Amino acid sequence: MIAVIVEGWSDHTAIRRVYSPKDVQTIVTNGTKMNGRIKEQIQEALDMRLPTFILSDPDKAGDELAGMVKSNFSKVSRIKVNPDMAKQERMFRVKYGVEYCSDEYLKELLEGVVQYGRHKAM
Hints:
alpha/beta, Dna Topoisomerase Vi A Subunit, Chain: A, domain 2, two-stranded antiparallel ribbon, 6 strands, globular
C-alpha cells in the first residue's frame, strides 16, 4: 500500500476509479490547506512506513501544496503530472487537474509506486 496526498475529493475519486483502498490510501487536503489534521494523516502514513507521495495538479495551487508538504515532510516525493494529460477545455479557458486525467494515464503515473508499495508490504 502507498499513501497519496491529493488536493480534492475529485482527485480521490479519480484514483478510486483505478486503484482500491488496499493499494492506495488517499489524504485529501481540500485545496492548499495544511492544517493539523492533514499533518497528522501524513505523519501516520509515514509512521506506518507507507511510501507517501504528492499527486497535485500541474498548476500554481498544486505547486503551492507540494511546497507546503515538502517543507513539513522532506521525505515525501511529488509525482509530476503532465499538464497536457490533465487538462479540460471549457469555453474560453483551460483548467488543469488530476481529476481530468484519463484512467490509463493515472495507472501509468501510479503503477510503479503502487507496485513498490505492494513489494514493500511483503
